[in-house]
Amino acid sequence: MSEHSYDAIIIGAGVIGGAVALELADRGYKTLTVDKAATAGAGSTINSCAIVRFSYSSIEGINLSWEGMHYWKDWANYIGSDDELGLIDYHMTGQLVLQQHGDATHAARVKMLWDELGIPHEVWDTDTIKARCPYIDPSLFGPPTRPDNEAFWKDPAGAIERGYFTPDAGYVSDPQLSCHNLQRGAEARGATFWFNAEVVSIDQDDHRISGVTLADGRAPRAPIVVNVAGPHSYLINQMAGVYDSMNIKTKALRHEVHHVPAPDGVDFDAHGITVADDDLGIYFRPEVGNHILIGSGDPVCDPREFVDPEDYDTSLYAEQYEAQVLRANRRLPGIGMPHHKKGIVDLYDVSDDWIPIYDRTDLDGFYVAIGTSGNQYKNAGSAGQMMADLIIAVEGGHDHDGDPLVVEGRYSGADLDIGFFSRNREINPNSSMSVHG
Ligand SMILES: Cc1cc2nc3c(=O)[nH]c(=O)nc-3n(C[C@H](O)[C@H](O)[C@H](O)COP(=O)(O)OP(=O)(O)OC[C@H]3O[C@@H](n4cnc5c(N)ncnc54)[C@H](O)[C@@H]3O)c2cc1C
């Protein structure tokens, strides 16, 4: 083996790429991770809200997230090495999914699936919501609209009757640090990381991966390459020549998250929880410094802007800031409209049905962990396990396309059905087609 020969090359040192590297290194693979950024986690992971929740629209999605949560709870053991920057904290605030009227809602579907799978949860009625979260106004305001629509300003139509609370949910306070932790954990198992290393070509020899070429001319060799390039995933697939052969595609969607101070007199650091609020089309969670992060639940009234990941507007849009902060004001009265607009703009790597693709491809040795659709941070550990098990099985001769692999989650024992995340699935009609997955 030459100096620059590896068993596997991983493109991307985000949270999913980091977990793939750790898992493969743990199984004895000599891995090289290449990332065009200067440090781990500087891609879309850096701006993730890093919420850990189980409110997916499919059994397979819930199983993956339930299993994934255990990694955050057991982080120090999972990483298994020191990090000079320290390890992340998992804030187990719990998550409340608010139920609007009617059974044809995402919340109702989630509740049904949680019952089926035995995901621990409590049903909160209006009085319980008020008692447990006195800062929440449980009125029914929806369906979501924008402030330039007069329906936005109508009086509430009754109250939210129920919410579903999962105590094990929460968030990670520093998503970029989690990537550095994964890097150190992978390095302790023999992995190598190159930064400022941009892949410009995916190399093949006789229909099989042979390595990658970097912008600086270096060309590390390996028989396995894993595309974990986040919102740049489709560009890497085009380089590899597999883009057209996949039924499900990915593209980069611009997204904003806004940061506001908690209302006066509310200690959101101490008492805040994570809330999914489809009645208003938002979600929110506590942020350090008694702040609140407000994200979008992708209501249909909001414009969707697909962009070139190399060239998009990174400034906050005044209309979107106003829409999200006014929506949050209805649920959390007293936020007001801060003079200084704070927030972030980043990209989701959205698949056609907002469900990720964890799969092999038609090019032997080329694998993808992509299409994470704004909802896979929490699943890094379980996705890493699935990808490593998949690669080992396929390289060992398993026909995953003909006989899709199901592996057992190492913490929960849940079935992780990798075929569900196939590149060649039909668009899943049960998907929320939103960040809920
Ligand atoms: C605003 C926002 C909020 C979110 N909130 C949540 C949440 O609350 N909960 C949740 O579970 N998920 C959430 N997500 C989704 C989650 O953050 C992502 O699914 C996850 O971070 C993706 O990780 P990744 O490793 O796949 O990609 P990334 O972190 O994007 O990493 C990809 C890496 O590939 C590198 N790369 C790209 N092209 C090349 C190239 N040519 N050569 C070399 N390197 C390359 C990039 O530099 C980058 O570091 C959110 C995402 C966003 C943007």
Shape: globular
Low-confidence stretches: none
Radius of gyration, in angstroms, nearest whole number: 21 Å
Q: So what's the CATH class of the largest domain?
A: Alpha Beta
Give the N-terminus to C-terminus distance in angstroms.
42 Å
* SS elements, strand count: 22
User: Which CATH architecture of the largest domain would you pick?
Assistant: 3-Layer(bba) Sandwich
- Helix content class: 10-25%
CATH overall fold name of the largest domain:
FAD/NAD(P)-binding domain
Largest sheet: 9 strands, mixed
Mean pLDDT: 97
Number of helices: 10
What count of domains describes the coordinates?
2
The proportion of residues in beta strands is: 15-25%
Structural class, please? alpha+beta
**Which small-molecule ligands are present, each listed once?**
flavin-adenine dinucleotide
CATH superfamily of the largest domain: FAD/NAD(P)-binding domain
